[in-house]
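queue> pop job 88
queue> type: inverse folding (structure -> sequence)
queue> payload:
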C-alpha cells in the first residue's frame, strides 16, 4: 500500500503542532503495515462515501479513502470529543 495526500490534507497538516505531526508519521507507518493495528482504531467513518477514520492520538483523527493499493489521505483534525 501507498499513501497519497490531498491538497486539503497537506494544508491542514502544515498547521498542526510539530508534536502531532510526529505522532502522525508514526501512525502512518502502522497504517501501511496493517489497517487493523490496535493504536489506529481504524473504522469506517462514512459507509456511503467509503471514508475511514483513524487515530493520531486521543485528540486528533485523520480521514482517508482506500482506492486500489493506495490510502488517500483526505483530512486531519482535532476530534470534537
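queue> result:
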Amino acid at each position: 500500500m501507498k499513501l497519497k495526500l490531498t491538497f486539503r490534507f497537506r494544508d491542514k497538516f502544515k498547521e498542526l503542532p510539530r508534536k502531532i505531526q510526529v505522532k502522525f508519521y508514526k501512525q502512518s507507518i502502522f497504517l501501511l503495515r496493517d489497517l487493523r493495528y490496535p493504536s489506529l482504531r481504524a473504522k469506517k467513518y462514512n459507509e456511503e462515501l467509503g471514508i475511514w477514520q483513524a487515530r493520531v492520538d486521543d485528540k486528533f483523527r485523520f480521514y482517508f479513502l482506500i482506492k486500489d493499493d493506495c490510502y488517500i489521505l483526505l483530512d486531519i483534525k482535532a476530534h470534537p470529543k
